[in-house]
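Methods — Computational structure assignment.
A single polypeptide chain was analysed. Its primary sequence is given first, followed by the predicted tertiary structure written as structure tokens.
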Amino acid sequence: MIWVKELLTSFLLYILISGVIVALLGGILLYLKRWKIARILIWAGLALGLAVICYQVSLIPRISYAKHQPKQSKQFLRVGFYNKHYLNQDFESIRQRLVDNRLDLLAIAEVTTKQFSGFEQAFGQYYYLTKFDCSCQSDNFILISKQPVEVKSFDMLAKGFEVETELGDQVLSLQISHFLYPGNSKMLVSRNQAIAKVVDQVSDKHSWLWMGDFNLSPFASSYQTTGLGLLKNINSNLALGHSWCYQDKIAPCTTIDYGLIDDNLKLYDYQTVDGGGSSDHQMIIAEVGI
């Protein structure tokens, strides 16, 4: 039952749209004097809409958003995360997105072992490359950066890694994750346990940025039960924006890629862009400073 609730609440916007369509259809039938069925459809549509609104209102106050601030310092970094899709081998398009968006660091998920050499050829002569090889078919990572990074951890179970790099005269802790998708109740529990584990880890750190594919909608109850709702989310437009669409950018779409930020960092910019090649995800970009 928990898994079903998680699935339904992940697509609240579409439930709301369905409610509006049902109510409009009822209005048309009312105009055609089909009184009985018109009343049923209108009340059903209104009930769906009211249920979504009530759920949304109860959720919003528990999500903490980071506010954009005017840039007053030259000590900042532009960091990106891209779940590129394991079949996507358009390395040149990805490199162009990195250049166009002036990224200092770009973490990429769903890298196959065979694709490491392709990234090295496309980026190796211009950037520092850090490979995170979990010996998986498609769940490896690669980090492309303009400056050296120090690897602090790589966790196969939590599907992510942590590195540290310089941000002015401070150290930025960058946490990257790609959590398991909740395909069934067991996978849902495993994903939530892994997210809660990283929440505890970053909560004890100073000057951290956490980005990745969480496979979790902000509307789902797990967003709160894992502790994510206690952290500052850099996307203040969760209800309208999206970072993932099912099968080649065809609806349903929702937000499952996130950036979360420490209170000690300032957020200067956040955006989602086409990451290059063919992927069901958008690239997310954050500009942070001290």
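Note: The radius of gyration is 21 Å.
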